[in-house]
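Quick look at the format.
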Amino acid sequence: MVVLLRFMLACALGFFAADLIAAEESLELQLPGFSHHFSPPKLQGRSWTDFHDGLGVQLTTRNPNVVFRYTGGFMRDSFNNQGLYAGGAVGLRLLQGNVEADLSLAPMLLYRTTRFDDARGSAPLKLIPVIMPLLSFEHRPSGIGGNLTVLPGGNFGKDLQFPGLIFLQFTYRLR
């Protein structure tokens, strides 16, 4: 029985490796994006930053049914401070052809502020792990695409109570 399980595991890994070898890879530039927050900040006189300037890279591996993404970069957060992000995503292809789309789960690490900064530069950066749903799409002939995600609101620890938001980040395929 153990030999059969080892054989099945070896076959599965072999098929997975063969599928990766046959996969198409591309490199995308992650561009600025826009968000919509579902509620205003609790502090009067404050507003969320809805334009998120920044720059990142995304390596995408496309298989016939599965897509892998690895990403990293910097971006202005909702509190109007620069932060960093890194992570990956694994998803299922929904559309193929001139317009492609896939739906993924994306575990990410965000290194960002968790509050408004009254004395510029004094808001501490914190490492925040999140898992986000991700809808990625691309117009293949032009290389223009995007990543759309929804972050639910809630209490993410004593230092971060955040409203929900929807976020669209634009991408451009380099190769």
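Next, a different chain entirely:
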Amino acid sequence: MKRVVLVTVLIFAVSLVSFARKFVAEGKTYSALGNYKIEIADNPVALKGKELKAFVISYENTNMEVTVAFDKNRKGMTYYVLSDNLSVKYVCTGNHFGVAKLNKELEKDGYRTSDSALNRSEYFHQKVITTGSNCDLDNSKLIAAFYPMLINNYENILAAK
């Protein structure tokens, strides 16, 4: 009987681990949202007819989750930052990394940059966050730290956990 219970507990523990997202990084936002955690998304994101790999960013002081799908193209790397509050993209060319509004072609997928939800002052401050070329992980950390400030009145999405 002890072996049956032990095997059952072991199987249960292994199955729980297989359903968890894979941890990638964590850090500070220096905002009211608190620390962030980046994990690999369970499923790819479908945009413009392509399946894109994605990260999920979660914040310490809110239930908001942000999905970051990334697409490599001839000009560099594009990071599509998708959430219920605000959707934008960050573009990494060989020269700089910064924010941009979503194109009209993503509206058919249900994503667009809402001008009423966008903090325009912060948007123009983030047009160029850094110069040079970074790796995907560094850029994802920058997105996690800077993205909350793009949301108008982001303090309204705070919820105590």
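The two ends are 40 Å apart (CA to CA).

See the schema section for token definitions.
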